[in-house]
Design goal:
A five-stranded antiparallel beta sheet has the order 1-7-6-5-4, with helices on one face. A two-stranded antiparallel ribbon has the order 2-3. It has one domain. Helices cover 16% and strands 41% of the residues. It has 92 residues and is α+β, with helices and mostly antiparallel strands. A hairpin with a 6-residue loop joins β6 and β7. It starts with a strand and ends with a strand.
Length: 92
């Protein structure tokens, strides 16, 4: 199975005081996933939709929906480090 690491530079901070947590910006993740699928995997991918405010926590996994050649699929992302680097699985 192909997998690609993406370093995400745009994150948001949610909460206040000591309960603040770093989260991913969904729109930025969607752009990153689209770029990887099209340029690295050479897939006809469109309509990528990822959840907003996913916590940047090592091992956190979440799915994004995507259309591959017009067919609905999903890709699983896994947070790799506390900087927001994530791994993108191959569409299923």
């Amino acid at each position: 199975m192909k997998r690609v690491l993406v370093v995400l530079s745009l994150v948001a901070v949610a909460g206040c005081g000591s309960n603040r947590q770093m989260v991913l910006d969904g729109k930025t993740v969607e752009q990153g996933v689209t770029t990887v699928l099209v340029e690295k995997y050479e897939i006809d991918a469109s309509d990528v939709r990822c959840p907003d405010n996913e916590e940047i926590k090592v091992g956190n996994m979440f799915d994004c929906s995507v259309k591959v050649s017009g067919q609905p699929k999903k890709v699983t992302l896994t947070i790799q480090d506390d900087k927001g680097t994530y791994d993108i699985g191959y569409p299923e």
